[in-house]
Predict the 3D structure of the following.
Amino acid sequence: MKTKEWTVKILISEDDEDKRTSATAVLYALGNRRHESVGRARRNPEDRPVPEIGDELAAGRALMDLAEKLLGDGAEDIAELSGPARPGGATLTRSP
């Protein structure tokens, strides 16, 4: 079985007052950037500051968006390949 490696890099930034957090999840597949997603979190002004909570929420939201994009890619690929059979089999090519 052939093993492929995909890497997700998550970058997290917080504002100076620890009220807003943003996370960017970038998927690299076969050494190329494939998708980028952003998630955000906002602290309620009445809550005490716990930066880790904002990090978790923002990163989780970015990863959820990334998952939706990958599922969309799969659905599009299935739709593209489910047309009439072509002689020699179907080949999927993806433009960068």
